[in-house]
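Below is a typical protein record.
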Amino acid sequence: MLDLENVSVKYGNFTPVEDINIRVDKGEIVVLLGANGAGKSTTFRTISGLKKTSAGSVKLENEPIHDQTPDRIVNKGIVQCAEDRKLFPEMSVQENLMMGAYVHRKRKAKIKQTLREVYELFPILYEKRKNPAGSLSGGQQQMLAIGRALMSKPKLMLLDEPSIGLAPLIVDQMFESIQQINREGTTILLAEQNAHAALAIANKGYVYENGKIVVEGSSEELFANEKVRKAYIGA
Protein backbone atom coordinates (compact mmCIF):
# COMPACT_ATOMS: atom_id res chain seq x y z
CA MET A 1 0.00 0.00 0.00
CA LEU A 2 2.72 2.50 1.03
CA ASP A 3 6.33 2.55 -0.13
CA LEU A 4 9.04 4.97 0.91
CA GLU A 5 12.07 4.44 -1.31
CA ASN A 6 15.43 6.02 -0.40
CA VAL A 7 13.68 9.02 1.16
CA SER A 8 15.71 11.89 2.56
CA VAL A 9 14.39 15.16 3.98
CA LYS A 10 16.27 18.38 4.71
CA TYR A 11 15.66 21.42 6.92
CA GLY A 12 18.29 23.78 5.58
CA ASN A 13 21.61 22.04 6.18
CA PHE A 14 20.08 19.58 8.65
CA THR A 15 18.95 16.14 7.44
CA PRO A 16 16.45 14.70 9.97
CA VAL A 17 15.64 11.73 7.72
CA GLU A 18 18.22 10.12 5.45
CA ASP A 19 17.84 7.36 2.86
CA ILE A 20 15.01 5.47 4.53
CA ASN A 21 13.05 2.59 3.02
CA ILE A 22 9.69 1.56 4.48
CA ARG A 23 7.03 -0.75 3.13
CA VAL A 24 3.51 -1.00 4.53
CA ASP A 25 1.26 -3.67 3.05
CA LYS A 26 -2.52 -3.46 3.04
CA GLY A 27 -4.06 -4.59 6.32
CA GLU A 28 -0.85 -4.36 8.36
CA ILE A 29 0.03 -2.55 11.54
CA VAL A 30 3.60 -1.29 11.16
CA VAL A 31 5.45 0.49 13.96
CA LEU A 32 8.28 3.03 13.82
CA LEU A 33 10.37 2.93 17.00
CA GLY A 34 12.87 5.48 18.17
CA ALA A 35 13.62 8.24 20.65
CA ASN A 36 12.35 11.80 20.35
CA GLY A 37 14.09 13.52 17.45
CA ALA A 38 14.97 10.26 15.70
CA GLY A 39 12.97 11.17 12.57
CA LYS A 40 9.61 9.48 13.05
CA SER A 41 7.45 12.62 12.99
CA THR A 42 9.39 14.02 10.03
CA THR A 43 8.64 10.79 8.18
CA PHE A 44 4.93 11.23 8.92
CA ARG A 45 4.98 14.87 7.80
CA THR A 46 6.64 13.78 4.56
CA ILE A 47 4.07 11.06 3.89
CA SER A 48 1.29 13.58 4.58
CA GLY A 49 2.75 16.13 2.16
CA LEU A 50 3.55 18.67 4.86
CA LYS A 51 7.27 18.31 4.15
CA LYS A 52 8.81 17.62 0.74
CA THR A 53 11.44 15.01 0.07
CA SER A 54 14.93 16.12 -0.93
CA ALA A 55 15.54 12.66 -2.43
CA GLY A 56 13.61 9.47 -2.99
CA SER A 57 9.90 8.79 -3.48
CA VAL A 58 6.72 8.12 -1.53
CA LYS A 59 4.15 5.92 -3.25
CA LEU A 60 0.59 5.04 -2.30
CA GLU A 61 -0.64 1.95 -4.13
CA ASN A 62 2.27 2.40 -6.59
CA GLU A 63 1.33 6.03 -7.36
CA PRO A 64 3.92 8.70 -6.43
CA ILE A 65 2.47 11.18 -3.94
CA HIS A 66 5.56 12.99 -2.63
CA ASP A 67 4.93 15.94 -4.95
CA GLN A 68 1.24 16.29 -4.04
CA THR A 69 -0.44 18.69 -1.62
CA PRO A 70 -1.67 17.54 1.81
CA ASP A 71 -5.36 17.92 0.86
CA ARG A 72 -4.91 15.70 -2.20
CA ILE A 73 -3.13 13.10 -0.10
CA VAL A 74 -6.02 13.06 2.38
CA ASN A 75 -8.42 12.62 -0.52
CA LYS A 76 -6.35 9.64 -1.68
CA GLY A 77 -6.86 7.96 1.67
CA ILE A 78 -3.99 8.89 4.03
CA VAL A 79 -4.80 10.72 7.25
CA GLN A 80 -2.47 11.67 10.09
CA CYS A 81 -3.30 11.79 13.78
CA ALA A 82 -0.67 14.15 15.17
CA GLU A 83 1.27 13.65 18.40
CA ASP A 84 -0.23 16.75 20.05
CA ARG A 85 -3.76 15.94 18.79
CA LYS A 86 -4.45 19.45 17.43
CA LEU A 87 -8.07 19.55 18.54
CA PHE A 88 -10.23 22.67 18.54
CA PRO A 89 -10.70 23.04 22.32
CA GLU A 90 -13.60 25.51 22.24
CA MET A 91 -15.60 23.44 19.75
CA SER A 92 -17.75 20.52 20.85
CA VAL A 93 -16.68 16.90 20.53
CA GLN A 94 -19.10 16.38 17.65
CA GLU A 95 -17.99 19.55 15.87
CA ASN A 96 -14.39 18.33 16.07
CA LEU A 97 -15.42 14.98 14.61
CA MET A 98 -17.29 16.66 11.78
CA MET A 99 -14.14 18.58 10.84
CA GLY A 100 -12.59 15.23 9.99
CA ALA A 101 -15.41 14.48 7.56
CA TYR A 102 -14.74 17.53 5.39
CA VAL A 103 -13.52 15.46 2.43
CA HIS A 104 -16.92 13.71 2.37
CA ARG A 105 -18.98 16.84 3.09
CA LYS A 106 -21.33 16.23 0.15
CA ARG A 107 -22.08 12.66 1.23
CA LYS A 108 -24.39 13.19 4.19
CA ALA A 109 -25.45 9.55 4.58
CA LYS A 110 -21.81 8.40 4.59
CA ILE A 111 -20.91 10.96 7.26
CA LYS A 112 -23.84 9.92 9.44
CA GLN A 113 -22.84 6.26 9.22
CA THR A 114 -19.17 6.98 9.96
CA LEU A 115 -20.12 9.14 12.94
CA ARG A 116 -22.18 6.25 14.29
CA GLU A 117 -19.19 3.93 13.88
CA VAL A 118 -16.88 6.31 15.76
CA TYR A 119 -19.35 6.59 18.63
CA GLU A 120 -19.62 2.79 18.76
CA LEU A 121 -15.82 2.53 18.96
CA PHE A 122 -15.56 5.27 21.60
CA PRO A 123 -18.87 5.40 23.54
CA ILE A 124 -17.54 8.09 25.90
CA LEU A 125 -17.38 10.49 22.94
CA TYR A 126 -21.10 10.03 22.36
CA GLU A 127 -21.78 10.76 26.02
CA LYS A 128 -19.71 13.95 25.80
CA ARG A 129 -20.58 14.89 22.21
CA LYS A 130 -21.89 18.34 23.21
CA ASN A 131 -19.01 19.13 25.56
CA PRO A 132 -16.05 21.32 24.53
CA ALA A 133 -13.12 19.20 23.39
CA GLY A 134 -10.88 21.09 25.81
CA SER A 135 -12.87 19.75 28.77
CA LEU A 136 -11.99 16.11 28.03
CA SER A 137 -9.33 14.09 29.82
CA GLY A 138 -6.09 13.30 28.02
CA GLY A 139 -7.26 9.82 27.09
CA GLN A 140 -10.59 11.10 25.85
CA GLN A 141 -8.85 13.76 23.76
CA GLN A 142 -6.72 11.07 22.15
CA MET A 143 -9.87 9.09 21.36
CA LEU A 144 -11.35 12.22 19.81
CA ALA A 145 -8.24 12.82 17.70
CA ILE A 146 -8.36 9.25 16.41
CA GLY A 147 -12.11 9.48 15.87
CA ARG A 148 -11.72 12.68 13.88
CA ALA A 149 -9.13 10.96 11.68
CA LEU A 150 -11.51 8.05 11.14
CA MET A 151 -14.22 10.41 9.91
CA SER A 152 -12.32 10.73 6.62
CA LYS A 153 -12.61 6.93 6.12
CA PRO A 154 -8.85 6.50 5.50
CA LYS A 155 -7.16 3.60 3.80
CA LEU A 156 -4.04 4.32 5.85
CA MET A 157 -3.88 6.03 9.24
CA LEU A 158 -0.67 7.55 10.59
CA LEU A 159 -0.71 7.53 14.39
CA ASP A 160 2.03 9.62 15.99
CA GLU A 161 2.73 8.64 19.63
CA PRO A 162 -0.91 7.91 20.59
CA SER A 163 0.07 6.64 24.06
CA ILE A 164 2.14 9.64 25.13
CA GLY A 165 1.13 11.09 28.48
CA LEU A 166 -1.58 8.49 29.14
CA ALA A 167 -2.04 6.27 32.20
CA PRO A 168 -1.17 2.57 31.70
CA LEU A 169 -4.80 1.42 31.79
CA ILE A 170 -5.75 4.00 29.15
CA VAL A 171 -2.76 2.98 27.04
CA ASP A 172 -4.03 -0.61 27.03
CA GLN A 173 -7.49 0.59 25.94
CA MET A 174 -5.95 2.77 23.23
CA PHE A 175 -4.00 -0.09 21.69
CA GLU A 176 -7.08 -2.32 21.82
CA SER A 177 -8.94 0.37 19.87
CA ILE A 178 -6.12 0.57 17.32
CA GLN A 179 -6.36 -3.18 16.79
CA GLN A 180 -10.11 -2.87 16.31
CA ILE A 181 -9.67 -0.10 13.73
CA ASN A 182 -7.19 -2.32 11.90
CA ARG A 183 -9.47 -5.35 11.99
CA GLU A 184 -12.21 -3.25 10.40
CA GLY A 185 -10.02 -2.54 7.39
CA THR A 186 -7.73 0.43 8.07
CA THR A 187 -4.00 -0.07 7.59
CA ILE A 188 -1.97 1.49 10.42
CA LEU A 189 1.48 3.11 10.50
CA LEU A 190 2.28 3.80 14.14
CA ALA A 191 5.11 5.87 15.62
CA GLU A 192 5.74 4.92 19.25
CA GLN A 193 8.24 5.01 22.08
CA ASN A 194 6.23 2.40 24.00
CA ALA A 195 7.89 -0.44 22.13
CA HIS A 196 6.45 -3.26 24.21
CA ALA A 197 2.82 -2.24 23.63
CA ALA A 198 3.38 -1.35 19.98
CA LEU A 199 5.21 -4.54 19.02
CA ALA A 200 2.51 -6.58 20.76
CA ILE A 201 -0.01 -5.49 18.12
CA ALA A 202 2.23 -4.80 15.10
CA ASN A 203 3.11 -7.07 12.21
CA LYS A 204 6.57 -5.56 11.75
CA GLY A 205 8.63 -2.55 12.67
CA TYR A 206 11.49 -0.21 11.86
CA VAL A 207 13.91 1.25 14.41
CA TYR A 208 15.18 4.81 13.91
CA GLU A 209 18.41 6.34 15.18
CA ASN A 210 19.53 9.81 14.15
CA GLY A 211 17.29 9.91 11.08
CA LYS A 212 18.26 6.49 9.76
CA ILE A 213 16.66 3.08 9.98
CA VAL A 214 19.12 0.84 11.81
CA VAL A 215 17.01 -2.28 12.43
CA GLU A 216 13.90 -3.69 10.76
CA GLY A 217 11.99 -6.93 10.96
CA SER A 218 8.87 -8.70 12.13
CA SER A 219 7.58 -7.97 15.63
CA GLU A 220 8.94 -11.30 16.79
CA GLU A 221 12.39 -10.49 15.36
CA LEU A 222 12.45 -7.08 17.03
CA PHE A 223 11.33 -8.52 20.37
CA ALA A 224 14.19 -11.02 20.11
CA ASN A 225 16.79 -8.40 19.08
CA GLU A 226 19.03 -7.74 22.08
CA LYS A 227 19.81 -4.15 21.06
CA VAL A 228 16.12 -3.33 20.61
CA ARG A 229 15.20 -4.96 23.92
CA LYS A 230 17.85 -3.03 25.86
CA ALA A 231 17.09 0.31 24.21
CA TYR A 232 13.31 0.25 23.97
CA ILE A 233 11.83 -2.58 26.03
CA GLY A 234 14.04 -2.46 29.10
CA ALA A 235 14.94 -6.13 29.17
Q: What stands out?
A: The mean pLDDT is 92.
